[in-house]
Amino acid sequence: xxxxxxxxxxxxxxxxxxxxxxxxxxxxxxxxxxxxxxxxxxxxxxxxxxxxxxxxxxxxxxxxxxxxxxxxxxxxxxxxxxxxxxxxxxxxxxxxxxxxxxxxxxxxxxxxxxxxxxxxxxxxxxxxxxxxxxxxxxxxxxxxxxxxxxxxxxxxxxxxxxxxxxxxxxxxxxxxxxxxxxxxxxxxxxxxxxxxxxxxxxxxxxxxxxxxxxxxxxxxxxxxxxxxxxxxxxx
Length: 235
What we know:
Elements: E1 2-10, E2 21-30, E3 33-42, H1 51-57, H2 61-64, H3 70-81, E4 85-88, H4 91-104, E5 116-119, H5 120-127, H6 135-141, H7 154-168, E6 176-177, E7 186-187, H8 206-223
Parallel strand pairs: 1-4, 4-5
Antiparallel strand pairs: 1-2, 2-3, 6-7
């Protein structure tokens, strides 16, 4: 499955008031793995940027006057998201700006270019009702480091959202592995049969161990209890 994590930065809070997109960041995920492909552009908004918006992302119109306009990158964006599920945190906000930009070019709605849009904010609210579900709050909840994020940026926020989404959806119902050719499932608890014949054993790298530890920390923060498979359990 191909997914695109998308975020934008804008000149203000309302596309209906004529505010424009100044930055787009997209990351590609295929079968739950980041591929390294991305689309990242800064845009000339053709208007001033609200002071409150500049406080969020740090950019002024003077920083962007030499950048391309949305019309010059629209086709690249639509081709990048084509046939993919697009993941956006608080999707209604970004979609309102994307639709407004496309409308200026006489185009259709952004949803028509992709296979669907998944709002990770709505997903988080369903999973964690009554809790804060901002991107920063989810980073803290799932052990995703955002210490390097002093200002908002579309590509940086897309990278954080990708990590958060993968952590939110990593659930596994069983610790059983079924081999090919219709053989029976082998339980990890059955030491006499483990590892099953024909099962390839792949050693993990140091980087994988660091990511695994971060995942465990995220689980423990969410459960407010030790991960059950730590040996020995730790607080």
